[in-house]
Amino acid sequence: MPRRDDLKKILLIGSGPIVIGQACEFDYSGTQACKALREEGYQVILVNSNPATIMTDPDMADRTYIEPLVWEIVAKVIEKERPDAILPTLGGQTGLNLAMDLDRHGVLQKYGVEMIGARADVIAKAEERDQFKRAMEKIGLEVCRGQTVRNIDQARAALDSIGLPCVVRPSFTLGGSGSAVAYNRGEFDTLVRRGLDQSPVTEVLIEESVLGWKEYEMEVMRDMDDNVVIICSIENFDPMGVHTGDSITVAPAQTLTDKEYQRMRDASLAVIREIGVETGGSNIQFAIEPRTGRMVVIEMNPRVSRSSALASKATGFPIAKIAAKLAVGYRLHELRNDITRKTMACFEPTIDYVVTKIPRFAFEKFPEADATLTTQMKSVGETMAIGRTFKESFQKALRGLEVGSFGLGCDQKDRWGTREQPDRDEIRSGLAVPNAERPWYLRYAIKSGMSLEEIYELTAIDPWFLDQLFQIVELEERLRTVPGLEQAGAELLREAKRAGFSDRQLATIWHTSEMDVRRRRKGLGIVATFKAVDTCAAEFEAYTPYFYSTYEEEDETPSRPPGTQRIMILGGGPNRIGQGIEFDYCCCHASFALRELGIESIMVNSNPETVSTDYDTSDLLFFEPLTIEDVLNICDRVQPDGVIVQFGGQTPLNLARALASADVPIIGTSVDTIEAAEDREKFQQLLLRLDLKQPANGIARNMEQARSEAGKVGYPALVRPSFVLGGRAMEICYDQTQLERFVAEAFVVAQGQPVLIDRFLEDATEVDVDAISDGQNVVIGGVMEHIEEAGVHSGDSACAIPPYSLPGPVVQEIREATTALALKLKVVGLMNIQFAVKREDGKPNVYVLEVNPRASRTVPFVAKATGMPLAKLAAKVMAGKTLPELGVLREPIPAHVSVKESVFPFRKFVGVDIVLGPEMRSTGEVMGVSERFSIAFAKGQLAAGVVLPEPGQGKIFVSVTARHKHQIGGLARRLVDMGYQLMATPGTARQLAAEGIPVERVKKLAEGHPNLLDHLQNGEVALVMNTPSGKGARTDEGRIRALSVQHGVPCITTIQAAEAAVKAMEAIRLEGMNVEAIQDRFPAPAVDLASRP
Amino acid sequence: MQMQAKLALEDGTVFTGLGIGAEGEVDGEVVFNTSMTGYQEILTDPSYRGQIVTMTYTQIGNYGVNDEDLESSRPHLAGFVVREVSRLHSNFRADGGLQNYLARHGIIGLAGIDTRALVRRTRIHGALRGILSTVDLNDDSLVAKAQASPGLVGRDLVREVLPEGPHEWSDGVSEWTELPGNRTTSERSPRLRVVALDFGMKWNIARHLRHQGCDVTVLPGTASSDEVLARQPHGVFLSNGPGDPEPVTYGIQTIRQLLGKVPIFGICLGHQLFGLACGARTFKLKFGHRGANQPVLNLDTGRVEITAQNHGFAVAEESLPAELEITHRNLNDDTIAGLRHRHAPAFSVQYHPEASAGPHDSHYLFRQFRQLMDGGDRE
């Protein structure tokens, strides 16, 4: 059947902010879907709350709504746009759940919107455990024995038949949120209670444990004619018990015979048919008992998923794109394989390499959290590496992870042979309890002489994988028998490179430098070759291929088309807190811009979730770790005319100096300038010359200096190491004791780097500015006024464009300072400056806090708020265009207000205090847009999952620190005037009562029951406003905040946010929320020149 | 100490790697298979006679070898080339490692070379003659030997893999063939007699015929039509087999005489022989189809099957006589993948519905053969 002509307008729902369990992969899938559907002539209406996505670029969809992803809001979009169909399977679990909500509330029926791809009953059959289980039994497939329960009594009864250990899984949660293994009855009760709480339908599944079984995934596609193909099989290195998102995974499956593989394939086909996913991609998970081969189906996602993004990147087959086309009627064999051009999409990709994905964690940001890996996903990002062998791909992935490792040991992070060498007990527990460091514990185990059998007993990791690690360590030991680099023969060096050893590891082994190893091996003719990812193992010619490095004989890098320029963009690597989709957005835009200029764009990145690693984003894609060695290897082959390092966040910046030293042509702002902005003394001189203020500050290289410098700048002082990301180990110290503790920590985080001590400006307003400069002209992209006070990490605070409270002259002063700094620093490209405005002696003073001559996290937000495609313009400037040539002359001042709000992963880390501080902890962001600040803020809150209650929906608990006592009265009165009932702990209650405001006094935790925690648990509280006095999860207030997060009660922790929330609640009462497409807000793109042809 | 081995091609290219398996020297046509699983089935598939098979997937031997996943009693291919062979195997059914298996059966293997470069060379230049050696490591001498080697075209390789004499087949399909939910509890009745003409038959074909309720008599492919008909079969099956179909004149002759007298089903070489018997011609593909991911369009149903394939020759479409109708096409290159006789009860497919190694999408063809013998409608 050809494309459906009865459909004209199709609604796509994105997945919202980046959270644990839902990252860039759904921007990748949504972007592919938008492109695929529009290519077919459909009008695409898109709703997504996340401004940092490529899919919400104005030219990706016909109508783009950056609005909260709740059914009431999407219903308004439907009412306005009247789409014919909704495609629910490309926006992750959020998109799927939202489509189900729209169906449940009759919205789809009311407006005659058809669900394409998968119907509601199909989704329910796949997602609802009992239905799924019945379906599997019907087709003769085994599932884990289990029972769905709705209360603790039912759960206990179920336990009698299932036994311990067992898995407790709440229904309908993101990324398996809340799932965990119970080993005893105490744990069991706790997990069930929490699970019931977290499940939106108050339901948990108690399930037979398949801990230690082999785990597999199959990516399946089906079309309307019931043609079904497998795109990729994935085998997990970590056996069952660790969430697949937190597992090291490998493609293709390694230890299945064809007989077993085909059985799994048959089962996959049977599952997708029985569940009835009509068209598109699904992901099916299996567990296999290693001793008998008994196979059970674990679950099925009736939609594209994180794994399908991985499968697409692993094979070159664009699952989301094809899924979108299948949904509108095409059959698989009517669609062309873009990579081979000759063959059709109806085939099963075959690969001639090994792909390894390793998750990246952020436990350092949540020290109170349990760092054990379980069935609940905790990782924040992932890296993928491709090698011809598992050994090569595994070691490449370890260095792509960017955690200071350059392979399996033999690097600065290696504890073996040092004073920190782990003892046998530590190794055993590092193996037995799954954790983020387990790959290295496996190495220590091998080094310590543990046998393969012993390691298998402790880990249940398949012996085949373990033997591969043994081979790596054995080769390392052979390398160590060679006294030095010069004595190492070509054959041995080549063997090491083929097994994935990095130059850095070899340098560590032979006590020499990475560059010396590089020189020596190149002298011996041992150079990286690049092979194509082509879906077909070279059976057909590939046209739009992407590449990975390996050490083989033949290189496939295409030669440079005559007369063209080549520019390389270095991406950001795995997502982490502080560096994620925003930078990928910038890299993609750089690539789009270069292609518009007719320049060949070359992308280098290792993150499989992203749009930047899509095969058609750039002219050439190198799927490689972002290390000096790997980047230089690519440069050797492609000889770029320029390399862009300022778009990928800290990752490429950290490489900039070494690349420049190796004569790699870095374009845009010079490396010297980048370093000058980071250099305190140079920066201080610069500010002096420009007559700009900065908070009093000092620099310390040891504890003694720290004490004296802090004494000079005065308390409170902000202490931070130089050269770190996302405010790592940055703290506000109110006295010397605190200072000493934090400084000690900072020296650990940034070894050899000095520690910076700044006077902390209390109660100051923070302002972020993104600007673009060509070296001669500077244009400001946006001035963002933060909602939270200075001191909260800029990545964690909410902010608004245009500024909502700052006086005009102050904003003007900020603009002038920005321009002066950009020109003085000779910025070419993007720059971000953080200012603080502090009212002193009755007048506002502007302080410069930080200058970053590179793309910032806020670039996409600014672009969406103003319509100016900052990143694209910057890339063109770096390629030699001037701003006047690009028609960019003035700062765009939008007529509406856009508010960015941050989204936090606290729900995943039980017991963690949620107070905001200088250490960044948010994973994602949303945007609210309206004519008025208050409504825009309200939308931002709603989009971030903070549902501001209506009067009567529950009480508001208020508790503020002494500092805010004088401000709370006014807010409380406004709440009461709106009809809210207030609760407060004794101190705040007294204060409010004194002001004549009615308030219910509740007991402090120490005063017995019922106290606030009881009220929270009983669901009486709908909103918590709690400003912290002293940080700590173990304090009363810490427990209150943590518990409100666990119960899904919104918790506001700053007085500024409370103020904004009250304003928002007042505004919503008066006018409600309307929705508007960004195409209507910017009828003609603000800068037309930058839009793509 | 691991031994060195070399693969030299007729175009002068020489690949140097490590010898795995037996020592010695062998010539053959160098081909590649893109299946990521099923090396044991590939090793024991008699159709690879005379060929040096390169696996495009890089990690081979991971799950060892076992006694069940055999397609004949021993490996038939001339040589085996992989990127990396596993030193440890891990699978609950394994009873040995790949390297030992190769050595035990005298198969010369080569590991450690840039197999993708070899595959690309084959794709661009077509299947080349080559020589694999662990004894002669002189490049010039090896290339000269490769150039002097006979190649496949015009050679009757079937005679090298024929069964010694007639025998009855007794095994059914393994438990891996179907999901428990689809498994038929009893074999179909009434029992029918099928004569399988064995040109180098994969065992799984005979197992599938059993599974359809057939008593299978295996006759060497050299059997005459009289010998076949003497068994009073309800149907005759034409097996797969190695090499060029044209020299297999005895088979073509037999098929011609059987046509119209008894239902016929052919697979792979059997399909080509059926085509030749009906008056079509065959031609050599540039580098053949070998893998487990080949899409085939069933023209009757409009649906696609993912199939296992292993052939270097194909039936030429322009030579097709009017009596033959195309039922299936290979979607990658549009070549004929299935034929049906318009008047006689006979059909054939170029691919392997018995899979092993490969997907099970085309099992229905065995049911179709059964229905043809039952005199029922075509499926």
Helix- and strand-based class of chain B?
alpha/beta
Secondary-structure element order of chain B, N to C: EEEHEEEEHEHEHEEHEHEHEHEEEEEH
Helix content of chain A: 25-40%
Provide the spatial order of strands within the biggest beta sheet of chain B: 10-12-11-13-14-19-18-17-15-16
How many extended strands of chain A? Answer: 39
Number of helices of chain A: 36
Provide the low-confidence segments of chain A as ranges: 1086-1093
Q: Per the principal axes of the C-alpha atoms, what is the gross shape of chain B?
A: globular
**Which pair of chains has the greatest number of interface residues, and how are they split between the two chains?**
A-B, 62 and 61 residues
Write out the strand line-up for the largest beta sheet of chain A, numbering strands in chain order: 6-15-14-11-12-13-16-17
Helix content of chain B: 10-25%
Mean pLDDT of chain A: 93
Number of helices of chain B: 9
- CA gyration radius of chain A, whole angstroms: 28 Å
Highest CATH level, the class of the largest domain in chain B = Alpha Beta
**Major sheet of chain B:** 10 strands, mixed
Mean pLDDT of chain B: 95
